[in-house]
Design a protein that fits this description.
Strand content: under 5%
Distance between the termini: 42 Å
Helix content: over 70%
Oligomer: single chain
Structural class: mainly alpha
Number of domains: 2
Number of strands: 0
Largest sheet: none
């Protein structure tokens, strides 16, 4: 059962997220309001830390994991909006301080990072309570305890680590539930929608260059060119879908459901192909257009470095955004490899090579098929044995 202090902290984080939206729109007196919010936050945070200690001493693991779950989920929109709003403020202050080489912007950023870190710490109180209690009761090992304790004091990894700790706590309590149908297929379904739209876009582009007049002139190709950008927002900027997929993967691992992991990994990797092809084509088109435009400003061969710089600067964002979208699609594959290693169905070398392969374009799809086959063989051997 979620504690009252955890609910209060979650609600106050929600209020903070709304105030950060106001900061982005430069509403009057918003800075003063945020300072007031911060003061109240630390008061609530003190109550949360005391509550986590109380639950830890009472050995109430169920309340600890439920409270940790609420607080960490509530913290996600706050920290996402915090990054967006404060980045905008820092850039504005830094650009206005040209006489001092943006020093004010740097100092403002440093201040915001410190304050944001202080806000982060109380959100990990219940997760740390879960870890210390499970370690004392010998429900987890030392390596797991030490690693996840460190993760709770770092940005981003605290969310990921908390989800693992929460799922492990539920598994140890015997309260873990099978994933719901929507949760199980959420990542695959989202990728399927984006890839279907990407396939239509690729077809329209091909029709344009092949002069298939029946399919051209609708303007749909231009409208669908925003699909990779929307996919980036869904898979990276607002990380709800990736976090759900990660949580499901952890549940499969703890339940030992190798078949579900291999099927999910294969489905995700095959479904995403059209989306990533569209992203690649758009990146190359944008790079080509900007490079061609920059050639008009080149007066001699010695100035070709200018075009090369423009090409690099236009190519890099597309590759980086594509790579960030790739990472969530590898969660099932890496978890599948971890489960195979746990069952000693693969060698450490096989695991390491395929984990690396899952982190790069093209090789991730090939590796997914290889891992799916190996997992299938392991399942067959186990059923026959």
């Amino acid at each position: 059962m979620t504690s009252t202090a955890a609910k209060a902290l979650g609600a106050w984080l929600g209020v903070g997220a709304l105030l950060l939206v106001g900061l982005s729109y430069e509403l009057p007196a918003m800075t003063a309001v945020l300072i007031g919010w911060l003061v109240v936050y630390f008061v609530v945070a003190g109550l949360v830390v005391a509550d986590a200690i109380r639950l830890r001493r009472g050995r109430d693991l169920d309340a600890l994991q439920a409270s940790a779950n609420l607080v960490k989920i509530a913290a996600i929109p706050f920290f996402v909006l915090n990054f967006v709003a404060l980045s905008r403020v820092v850039l504005h202050i830094g650009s206005a301080d040209k006489d001092h080489f943006g020093l004010r912007g740097f100092l403002t950023a440093l201040l915001f990072v410190v304050l944001t870190y202080l806000v982060l710490l109380p959100t990990s109180a219940y997760t740390v309570g879960c870890l210390t209690l499970m370690r004392k009761e010998d429900r987890i090992g030392r390596v797991f305890y030490g690693l996840h304790l460190i993760l709770q004091f770092l940005f981003v990894t605290d969310i990921v680590g908390a989800m693992v700790v929460i799922e492990v706590a539920r598994n140890r309590l015997g309260t873990a539930r099978p994933p719901r149908v929507v949760s199980k297929h959420l990542l695959t379904g989202v990728l399927l929608v984006f890839s279907a739209l990407s396939t239509i876009w690729l077809f329209l582009v091909a029709a344009y260059y092949l002069d298939w007049r029946t399919f051209t002139g609708t303007g749909l190709d231009f409208q669908l060119s925003i699909v990779p950008a929307v996919a980036f927002i869904v898979l990276v900027v607002v990380p709800v879908v990736p976090l759900v997929a990660f949580r499901i993967a952890v549940r499969y691992f703890l339940a030992g459901d190798l078949d579900a992991l291999r099927r999910s990994n294969r489905a995700v990797k095959l479904t995403m192909i059209p989306l990533f092809v569209q992203n690649l084509v758009l990146t190359l088109v944008i790079t080509g257009v900007l490079s061609a435009v920059s050639l008009y400003f080149v007066e001699s061969k010695n100035d070709l470095w200018f075009t090369a710089t423009i090409a690099s600067l236009s190519l890099a964002p597309g590759i980086i955004c594509g790579y960030l979208m790739l990472l969530p699609t590898s969660v099932y594959g890496i978890t599948c490899l971890a489960l195979l290693m746990r069952r000693r169905a693969i060698t450490p070398a096989f695991c390491a090579v395929n984990v690396i392969a899952h982190l790069f374009f093209v090789t991730d799809v090939i590796s997914a098929l290889v891992v799916a086959r190996r997992a299938g063989q392991a399942l067959a051997a186990r059923s026959n044995g």
